[in-house]
Amino acid sequence: APSPEGDGAAVAVEPCPVLRVECIICYSSYDLGVRLPRRLYCGHTFCQACLKRLDAVTNEQRWIPCPQCRQNTPTPRGGVTMLDLDLATFLAVKADREQPRVAGRSPPALPAKGSCKEQAVTEQPAGLCPEPVPPALFPRRGCCRLCLCCGVTAALES
């Protein structure tokens, strides 16, 4: 049987699931305010407002139990607002807010992160970095060639 990788045959690509832009607890859309998408240690994402309500004390420790898998996430010292943002969802919400709304059109469905079986990106898209950025140089202090600052600068210049 011929190899599907090397003969150039078309490979069926399964459709991408849509990135969820609403909290599955309250069914409210994520936003850039009180409903920021926060990720628990288990990887599940919920809005910040719902996670604040789930925050509970057990055995003198504050925990947030995941409503999907029941894994406990310790509440950070600063509270729920210190949990990591789900960056893919946050950026999708931010991009949606920055696009001007067209009357009668719903926002496009976004593919879920890491779930599509597509070709890997092997090079940077054109136009992201129009000019090469020169390497950063430390200010030269002229004091000696033995200190870290001058040594690094001398190495960069040569």
UniProtKB/TrEMBL annotation:
<feature type="domain" description="RING-type">
    <location>
        <begin position="23"/>
        <end position="70"/>
    </location>
</feature>
<dbReference type="InterPro" id="IPR001841">
    <property type="entry name" value="Znf_RING"/>
</dbReference>
<dbReference type="GO" id="GO:0008270">
    <property type="term" value="F:zinc ion binding"/>
</dbReference>
<keyword id="KW-0479">Metal-binding</keyword>
<dbReference type="InterPro" id="IPR027370">
    <property type="entry name" value="Znf-RING_euk"/>
</dbReference>
<dbReference type="InterPro" id="IPR017907">
    <property type="entry name" value="Znf_RING_CS"/>
</dbReference>
<dbReference type="InterPro" id="IPR013083">
    <property type="entry name" value="Znf_RING/FYVE/PHD"/>
</dbReference>
<dbReference type="InterPro" id="IPR053122">
    <property type="entry name" value="RING_finger_domain"/>
</dbReference>
<keyword id="KW-0862">Zinc</keyword>
<keyword id="KW-0863">Zinc-finger</keyword>
<dbReference type="Pfam" id="PF13445">
    <property type="entry name" value="zf-RING_UBOX"/>
</dbReference>
<protein>
    <submittedName>
        <fullName>Ring finger protein 224</fullName>
    </submittedName>
</protein>
